[in-house]
Amino acid sequence: DGKTILLAVSLFCLNSSLLYYSSEVKQYMSDVFVCLLLYYLFFKEHQNKKMLLLSIVGSLCIFLSNISIIILFTIAIVIIRDGITQNKTNLKRLVLPLTTWALSFGYYYYMFINNHPNKKSMLNYWGESFMPINVFKISFWDFCFYKTKMIFFSLLSFDSAGIIALVFFTIGLYNLIKAKNKNILFLFLLPILLQLILSIFKLYPFDLRLILYQTGFYILILSVGIIDITTWGFQKIKKGWIAWIPIIFPLMVCINLFKNYPIKVEELKNSVEFISNHIQPNETIYIYYGAIPAYKYYTETKKISFKNPILFGKVSREDEIKYIKEIENNKNKCWIIFSHIYDTENKYITNYFDVTYKKIFSYTTIGSEVYLYDMTEIKKNY
């Protein structure tokens, strides 16, 4: 239906989650790209080349996105189901894509996933994003409640109007089930179910960034519900204004988008600008380890150019005193740049230096902090 497609595209293009992660050049955007690309190849009418294209592109996508295997598995299930129900004898065509996908994923798993050195830390980090399996425990229902809220309030960018989106999504889902549109239901719902199953076994978390590729699934089903209710209401009441109801939803998304525009999370550039306006030639700069990737990015893109000595901090979450020792190796005036701060490590460091050395400057912006300490003489023992 043209109205459903137009509404879905508008909600997709105005989605603040998609815009934010694309503007941040996050890897999660490759998940969205891969999902759209694979479904495009699956739906496009090129029967003679479909399996060859899916084989080649699908194998490449495995190395571009962690969720590609979920989408490929879903497509394979739908193709097999269609082949069986329609009594087709050409299921042999599946041998090529399934073989290439399996070989590519096997190689990818062996090289990049198997015995990964950060597995333990990642399991701890994503602990609350793994679905509990026991439905008789409150943790299971807490997970369902908060993840549903996450999807309709945050992922779909409806904010406090997320409950309205949930209602229309439920209506759209019901109508698709009633219409027995099995292929659409499979393609949209199976990836969601598969990721939830993976999260149960702690193989892949279910969280906002990691389900970004599912945004289109929810939006399309939501759009079906909105258009169906609008059509039904127009037929019953026969008032022209009812036809304008779908416009309300893109407007709600727009309000949420521009309310938070421009999006600011960790404004390292502001901190660097402050230092540039005050730094002297004999002063050193210490960069907290969380700020290093952003600092290097701006350096490589010529946004930052310091000629002062630079000290790059190292991760020491198990032994925070090492941060102090790193900085104290410098005996001059030292600038400390914080960004992407873990826990309260910045407070630990600054509390020590505040009582030990003279603080000359301090500057705080969104997600970033800057301090200048004179370390030429000790003010007080810590």
Poorly predicted parts = none
The general outline is globular
How big a fraction of the residues is strand?
5-15%
- Amount of helix: 55-70%
Computed structural class: alpha/beta
| Distance between the first and last residues' Cα | 70 Å
Strand order of the largest sheet: 2-1-3-5-4
Radius of gyration using CA atoms only: 26 Å
Order of helices and strands: HHHHHHHHHHHHHEHEHEHEE
Structural write-up:
α4 (47-61) runs parallel beside α6. The chain has a five-stranded mixed sheet, with helices on both faces. β1, α14 (292-300) and β2 form a beta-alpha-beta unit. With 382 residues, the protein is an alpha/beta fold. The protein has helices spanning 2-13, 16-23, 28-43, 47-61, 68-85, 95-113, 119-125, 138-155, 162-178, 182-200, 215-237, 245-259, 268-278, 292-300, 321-328, 345-356; strands spanning 284-287, 310-312, 333-339, 358-365, 368-374. The protein is globular.
Properties at a glance:
382 residues; alpha/beta; five-stranded mixed beta sheet; 16 helices; 59% helix
Q: Outline of this structure?
A:
The protein has 382 residues and is of the alpha/beta class. It is 59% helix and 8% strand. A 5-stranded mixed β-sheet has the order 2-1-3-5-4, with helices on both faces.
